[in-house]
Structure prediction request, 293 residues.
Amino acid sequence: MDIVYDYPLYRPPSEADSMIFQVTLGCPFNKCSFCNMYRTKEYAERPWEKIKTEIDIAAKFYPDTRRVFLADGDALNLPKDRIIQVLKYLHSKFLELERVSCYAMPMNLLKKKDDELKEMKAAGLDMLYVGIESGSDIVLKKVTKGATYRTIVQACQKAKRRGYVLSCMVVLGLGGKTYTKEHIADTARILSEAAPDYVGALTLDLEEGVYDEFMTKFGEPFVTVDDIGVLDELERLVENFNPKTPVVFRANHASNVYSVGGTLPDDRDKILTLIKSLKSHPEMLKPKVLRRF
Prediction:
């Protein structure tokens, strides 16, 4: 007997080898104009008995599971007690379990009290994936992110204070050509202040389901950043992101024009050299037909 997922099902690239349990369906916010992930779903919190049954099934067939990802859009929207119930049961069934992670919206991190975050961490929630997208308040408003520079920083720092490993995502090209300077300057600044452990840079690729909505909500003509412009943004981001402690930086998502990565600040020069080479040799870039958001 297998777990029956409610599709579409998403997880971060680094959770490719993780066991996935859907503790919620869809996204409780679901208004970001650039994101098509959960538009076909109505948000719902799954009953404990269904979650428990699926954990039991997985534990029977995959008892050596070491990593678990809690889907869908944001498990932190659940009440603290339900999250802890899930975490404790996971650790009772998977004795080799090393890491449990989930997506976390800034607004839900801020809604949770410090003591609640502390309790969830103690119960075994280890890593949070936070979509920053941009540090520019102008861009964040135009893409209806539901967050600001300040609330994002507050949320990330709150999670870090409670010992969570933090992986943050940003989106190259999100401000278009009009706001490319503000988008990257403020994104580099917010990453430096938020101090994540991991950063993933994606590239904007508007799917058909949200294209019209994105253009309408943007409020003015949106001029797409071309491949060289994306590399320019990546170059400026790497140049100006100044972490106080080492950060694993990746631009290797399926949406990116080329897989780039390293540890900042140590690998900054190596990454910048690669980007400059790519700008001089655009034939090396990934064909657009192979990219997806």
Notes: The chain has ten helices and ten strands.
